[in-house]
Amino acid sequence: MSISQNGYLSKNSSIRSDNAFYHLCFLEDGNLVLYKRKDAYDNEGTPLFAPGTHGRGEKAAVEADAFRIRDKDDNVVWDSQSSPGKKKDVPEGLNLSLVVTEDGELELKDNGVGTVYWSSDTKGGKKGNELSGVSAPEGEFFLAPYANNPLIMAVCAWFSWGFLGYWTMGQKKKAIAAPVYTAAFYLIFLGWIWWLLAVVDTYLCSKKLQEEGSLEPNHCEVPVIGNLPLWK
Predict the structure, then answer these.
(1) Is-contact 121 87, C-beta < 8 A?
(2) Is there a single domain that holds both residue 150 and residue 123?
(3) SS3 state of residue 199
(4) Are residues 84 and 153 in the same domain?
(5) 208: domain range?
(6) Helical axes 179-212 vs 150-159, angle rounded to 10°
(7) Could you read off the pLDDT of 28-61 as tens digits, one per residue?
(8) What distance in Å separates the CA atoms of residue 96 and residue 67, rounded to the nearest whole number?
(9) CA distances for 96 relative to 6, 190, 216, angstroms
(10) Is the backbone peptide bond immediately before 145 cis, with ω within 30 degrees of 0?
């Protein structure tokens, strides 16, 4: 299915791919979301693309030179030709349409020769570069646009006790964090705690032996950085 030039999606409307596995939904909150569904009867699905226009979007329209989301005052809040997806400059005089393909791509294309001028980069059901303001199904995770940054993912997992928290329309949502990020961050953190305790223990040991006047070499192992002891 597609949206023809000058056509649009309003809130609570949608189009789908011909095989019914991919649905593009303009939600009540104003966000536009492309969902991948497990089968034609899956009512939830995994979000692949969402430009984060919740609270602002009023309609999503195919215009003469782009696919755009506008607010209630007709201001542009998202534009396909300035988004992170794959894109080309659109020449004048074309007849465009937005298509949801059977392999999970959103494509803004010329109805004449079929040239694609923008796509969501979600082919094959992979998550695109724009994914904001939507809830993840249980067992999945993302913190758009930082899902590919291990450090940020690990920090977020740590501070949310193994969960990644993000916000949608003022309500905090949770999705299970990737175990590898969470485990790695906890191991590094516990390693630093262990080292710090070893430093404190060695220091206290040294002070005690000094006070007793029985300090001899190797009675206490002094932590070192490189070849330099932390204290003498």
Answers:
(1) no
(2) no
(3) helix
(4) no
(5) 137-232
(6) 70
(7) 888 888 888 876 555 567 888 888 888 888 999 9
(8) 9
(9) 9, 56, 84
(10) yes
**pLDDT of amino acid 74:** 92
One domain, residues 201 and 106: no
- pTM for the full predicted model: 0.57
User: What span, in angstroms and rounded, lies between the C-alpha atoms of 175 and 167?
Assistant: 11
| Average pLDDT rounded to a whole number, residues 88-102 | 86
* pLDDT for res 170: 32
Count of beta carbons in the 10 Å neighbourhood of residue 43: 7
* AA letter at 180: V
Examine the domain organization and report whether 126 and 36 are in the same domain: yes
Distance, in Å, from the CA atom of 114 to the CA atom of 222, rounded to the nearest integer, reads 71
Structure tokens at 39: 């089968």
Q: What is the DSSP letter of 56?
A: T
CA-based nearest residue to 186, from 163, 166, 161: 161
